Amino acid sequence: MPTEMTSWTRQDPSRGFRDLYVGPHPDLILSLDIISGGQAIRARMSGAATFGLYSAGYGPRLKVLPSTVRLEAARLCKLWDEVFVGFTPYDATGNLGEGRLEHPYADQIDLRAEPRAEFLRILRELVLMGQHLLFDTLFGEEQDEVITFREDLAQILAKDGLRIRFDSELFLPWPLMCLRPVDLPEVRQDEPEGLFERFLGHRHRIDQTGDAHPPTAAPTELTKPPVVSLNHDLTLDVTGQLTCKNKVASALKDGTAPCERAHRHELLEALENPRLNEHLMYFWCHGAFEPAGPEPPHLVIRLTDQTAIHAGNLHAWRTGVGQDTPFHPFVILNACHASASGGETDRAHLGGEFIRSGARGVLGPQIGMPQKFAAEYALRFVRLYLNGDDTAGGIALTLARDFADKLHNPLGIAYSLHYGMDTRLRRAPVTATGHEQEMAA
What we know:
The chain has helices spanning 66-85, 116-138, 144-157, 192-196, 200-203, 245-253, 264-271, 311-319, 350-356, 371-387, 392-407; strands at 28-35, 40-46, 61-62, 163-168, 205-209, 222-223, 227-232, 257-261, 280-284, 286-292, 295-302, 308-309, 330-334, 361-365, 415-418, 424-427, 437-440. By secondary structure, it is an alpha/beta fold. It folds into two domains: 28-209, no CATH class; 222-440, 3-Layer(aba) Sandwich (Rossmann fold). The strands form four sheets. The chain has a six-stranded mixed β-sheet, sandwiched between helices. A five-stranded mixed β-sheet has the order 3-2-1-4-5. A three-stranded antiparallel β-sheet has the order 6-17-16. The radius of gyration is 23 Å and the shape is globular.
């Protein structure tokens, strides 16, 4: 006679493909694949902004060594630290210029009153080296197919307001790279506004990807106030007089369900919780690259207890929670170099590990960001993001342009998105039962 048998699912082949979310496609995707055992690069581009054979995945083989590109990228970020953030205006006698701050470009937000010739000299060098990395180091070969690719790419990048994804095993400071004067013949090169327009981070919405990929399913969970966390080092600006960090903390609590963590063990306990469900995670702390034995230096951040937190920690803490968790926050790592990568790939990158753990995007600076500016940038970003009217990529571009065009401050360009260009906090209209919000990418 028929007998009902007990069955269970040992594997789920469709897992990750149900409710597949397909967001808007970027106007340009530039891919750089490391080939030939790390001795060359294959460049490809696609997207609605491209033309001709590029739609079929055509692209040249670049003979430049990936290690050479990484070295020049690191030099560009170091240049920003030294000639802009760390600049000291000495006079002809070797003393601090009369009436000048020791670090005028780090300790002020509004730079319009700084000496014009000095400011233009510094800005021109940053632009020149950003141009050098893109056109001389990366695409500098004088072979026909490389020349054609380089000029076609420049023609596309000279447009304004594109949505661009750099899908690359080389995690590079794309927003700091610059177009050449010949690419923008109508732009004046003797004005700050004209020089700002040459930065890719001033022209376009940009994110960059590596081997870390965000969730594929469209988020559907509705919450009441969005859950927001402040993870910070209490020893930074203890009095709150040097920066607007207290205003940032207040903005994070405005209309949200906030939580606060100041120590490493508190973050550990939260990340080990499989039910952790935050919409925005904000970090305010120091970040630095530290030695890792025979491996390349890796990014480390520290909260109040000054104990190192790195990508390996995050991977270990999240490994035991499984993959079906509600942890899909947008992460702001407001720590120095948080969007830079010091390794041979982006595997050891803290932002990349957040992405692999479920985050829908990570924002952070690629240089040693001054605390005063970092707090002001965060205040504006947090307010705009929590308001829900624009995407993370749109906000980043708006702030880069506002700080540069209105205050002559290029530091907003130095913030970079690791994924997340289209991540947005969507809030439902007010109803009789109150507010409902939906987190959507």
